[in-house]
Amino acid sequence: MEFAGFSTKDFDIFTIDGLEERMEAIRENIQPKFKAIGEGLFDDMSNMTGNDMYVHIAQHARRTKNPPNDTWMAFCHNKRGYKKHPHFQIGLWDDHLFMWLAYIYEMPGKQEIANSFLNHIDDIRESVPDDYAVSLDHTRKDATSLSEIDLEQAFTRLQNVKKAEFLIGRYFKPDDPILSDGKAFLKEAKNTFKTLTPLYKISMG
Questions:
Q1: Do 43 and 50 touch, CB atoms closer than 8 A?
Q2: CA atoms of 143 and 139, how far apart (whole Å)
Q3: Contact present, 77 and 52 (Cβ < 8 Å)
Q4: Which residues touch 144 (CB under 8 Å, ≥6 apart)?
Q5: Using one digit for the tens of pLDDT, what is the confidence trace for 3-56?
Q6: Which of 3, 96, 100 is nearest to 42 (CA)?
Q7: Residue 103: pLDDT above 90?
Q8: At what angle do helices 182-204 and 110-118 cross, to 10 degrees?
Q9: Cα distance between residue 202 and residue 200, in whole Å
Q10: Helices then strands (H, E): number in the chain?
Q11: Contact 55/35 with Cβ under 8 angstroms?
């Protein structure tokens, strides 16, 4: 399946009431698109990072009552899972699509990674555009532009706080024309992750 883009209806899925009803819509409408994105970017992600990258699609299997407010896919060098490793994400909330390089709370070794980032703050500032977004909690919608965030404080928190997180990337509104154009979207995702790959390589040591 060739990726043909997202529609605003994909974002409307997060207004559907009920766990099973929303999950059914996610499985039928969004997950096939994630699979197609994975196929479209698989070789590029492996070539850019220098690692064999595997596609993981969130299944939300632990949920028993509340429907998910967002859903995502991930590229990671580990075939069995991604949450304990640096990984790249593409996902949707009801009001935006995100592309992240993610370091979430379940990942061991955050202290070493944060220390590496602290030693490369100037390099990070130079390689990543100011309008990229930064999130310190993947379960919340809000993010701050790179130009406005205190990177030293964020990395120190990642180093010292067990549940601290750091995600960096981009937000796109549902009506952004790039989202509905499959080829343009894949090109944009590739370029975004290419911009973030130097950070990934720093964190991989």
A1: no
A2: 11
A3: yes
A4: 133, 134, 135
A5: 999 999 999 999 999 999 999 999 999 999 999 999 999 999 999 999 999 999
A6: 3
A7: yes
A8: 100
A9: 5
A10: 8, 7
A11: yes
- Report the interhelical angle of 182-204 vs 31-49 (nearest 10°): 50
pLDDT tens digits along 43-100:
999 999 999 999 999 999 878 889 999 999 999 999 999 999 999 999 999 999 999 9
Pull the structure tokens for residue 47. Answer: 């070539």
Q: Write b or e for each residue in 154-191: b if 16 or more Cβ atoms lie within 10 A of its Cβ, otherwise e.
A: bbbbbbeeeebbbbbbbbbebeeebbbbbeebbebbee
Residue whose structure tokens are 């061991």: 108
**Do 34 and 78 contact (CB within 8 A), yes or no?**
no
Cα separation, 75 vs 54, in Å, equals 5
Q: CB 118: neighbour CB atoms within 10 A?
A: 16
- Looking at residue 117, what DSSP letter applies? H
SS3 18: coil
> What is the DSSP code string of 34-96?
HHHHHHHHHHHHHHHHTS--EEEE---TT-SSSPPS-EEEEEES-SS-STTS-EEEEEE-SS-
Domains of the chain in start order, with CATH, are 8-204 (3.30.930.20)
